[in-house]
Amino acid sequence: MSAKRIIAVAAVIIVFLSVNLFLFFKITRRLGNNYSGTGQMKMIDVSRYLPFENDSQLGKVESSLAFREGDDLPVLDGAAALVPVYASVIENCYPEGSVKYEGGEFSDDNYYGENFSSDSAMLYRNTIRGFKGVIEGTSDLFFSAYPSDEQLEFAAENGVELEIIPVGREAFVFFVSRNNPVEDLSSDQIRKIYSGEIQSWREVGGEEKAINPLVRSNGSGSQTMMEKFMGEKKIANRNLFAIFGASIGYSFRYYLSGMVPNENVKMISVDGIYPDVENIKNGDYPLSTFFYVIYRKDNTNPNLPRLVDWILSEEGQEMMEKCGYVGVK
Amino acid sequence: MGEGKSNRFLTAFIILVSVCTLLTLAHIIYIAAAYPNSSIIYFVNMEM
């Protein structure tokens, strides 16, 4: 083979290899762990929050409410970010043996509540499926951010009236890579970033890099919160090439800092206020929000109102703080 | 005979370019499918 032909073949291989390696290091390796719903769910290790296990990371208090075996135990379910809260409620108020965790292999068909048996008092189906569950009556009490308009419509279509009661405070937070020099954004800047009016980090005091505003799936708690935060402004469609820029995303504080902590991710201040417990408690952080318990108004389980009252009591609120959240009282 | 060799090389070269293009397209399709479903925290965590 002549030298020219060897060079031509080598050039083709090098060009395609370079393009694919570039794409891999810039994007693909950042997706590999998360392609399927299974991958996403593996990021929360629910077995760390199982009630009645010695090494579980739950908020334990002296509880005056103690259900017994044989009582009609309300079945609890909730959003990923609130697993520690409702698992702690069970730890404090339910009899041992009421949670039946089957573990099992994660798969695309088994990535939410299927890891608990059907007669378990604790389920874990996350926001979208869990909300449907409480409407359909497969759980009694659902812990979540405020439901989206679509979820409320779904309840109305099914003729279900809901009680939605705030039981704790959380913060809606924005995060960037640790390497990003930006530490603070104003609410207005964030809205402009997500509506596409600001597209470079340089415009907000950062480097000359495109901003890649990441969004979550519709119906998730944080996406509903983001839509509320944006108000009149619409979230712009993703700019194809921004994927090569530096990203910004949003979540809830405890989920980001306590449940899936990532050392290369940092929360940023909003309007000059950092989302720490103190600033959430005193109301200084502008994006403090409530989280709620949601149940059907026609639920006749007599233990349900007792449990909600306990969650709102001094003991329940102390438990909330021990879990790393902020109480409403 | 020289022309025959040249044609064989051309064919092999076109096949090589086609295979590389198809593999790259498959890579891009995977990204397009995976990106909207990926965890945004993990995506930022892995940012260099």
Can you lay out the helices and strands and say which pair or pack?
The complex is a heterodimer of chains A (329) and B (48).
Chain A: H1 3-26, H2 37-41, E1 76-78, H3 83-93, H4 126-136, E2 141-144, H5 149-157, E3 162-177, E4 184-185, H6 187-195, E5 211-213, H7 221-230, E6 246-252, H8 253-259, E7 265-267, E8 269-270, H9 277-281, E9 288-296, H10 303-312, H11 314-322, E10 326-327
Parallel strand pairs in A: 1-2, 4-8, 5-6
Antiparallel strand pairs in A: 2-9, 3-6, 3-7, 3-9, 3-10
Chain B: H1 2-34, H2 40-45
Quick summary:
The complex is a heterodimer of chains A (329) and B (48). Chain A is built from eleven helices and ten strands.
What descriptors fit this protein?
heterodimer, A: 329 residues, alpha/beta, D-Maltodextrin-Binding Protein, domain 2, 3 domains, eight-stranded mixed sheet, two-stranded parallel sheet, B: 48 residues, mainly alpha, 81% helix
Question: Explain this structure to me?
Answer:
The complex is a heterodimer of chains A (329) and B (48). Chain A is globular, with a radius of gyration of 23 Å. Chain A has helices at residues 3-26, 37-41, 83-93, 126-136, 149-157, 187-195, 221-230, 253-259, 277-281, 303-312, 314-322, and strands spanning 76-78, 141-144, 162-177, 184-185, 211-213, 246-252, 265-267, 269-270, 288-296, 326-327. By secondary structure, chain A is an alpha/beta fold. In chain A, helix 10 (303-312) crosses helix 11 (314-322). Helices cover 33% and strands 16% of the residues of chain A. With 48 residues, chain B is mostly helical. Chain B has helices at residues 2-34, 40-45. The termini of chain B are far apart. The mean pLDDT of chain B is 89. At the A-B interface, helix 1, helix 2, strand 3 and strand 6 of A face helix 1 and helix 2 of B.
